Amino acid sequence: LAVLAGILLLKTVVVRWRYLRRGPRAQAAAAYHDLTMFVGDQGLEVRPEDTFEELAERLRTELGVDAGEFAESATRARYAPLPLAETEARLLRRQLRSVKRDVRARLTPRERATGAFRLRSALSQATLGS
Known about the structure:
This protein has 7 helices and no strands. By secondary structure, the chain is an all-alpha fold. Helix 2 runs parallel beside helix 5, helix 2 (about 25-40) runs antiparallel to helix 7 and helix 4 (about 70-80) runs antiparallel to helix 5. The N and C termini lie far apart (about 30 Å).
């Protein structure tokens, strides 16, 4: 039980650590890594070179989840002029929660549990240091 709790804690720390960075570009990167880690743990292949739009398209085709709004906001938060980027960055966390909720709704309880305790993506993200 302690090992399982430790795994969940490690994954939470890895995700939350990214959100400590300030600025819309860093928030967009954190949201992207959060989502890729989450869907990677659910078995979806995520390539490091995927853009926000490519990730959204993969979610749509493989899981039937619409992540288009998330991708648009993340792209604007990452690349738009600062005033617009800041506005979009404020939307990202809510959109990310919505996408993750939609992914969870398409998974069986067993798949969700397996993904929750899978460490592969958390360790790969931690070693990348990005």
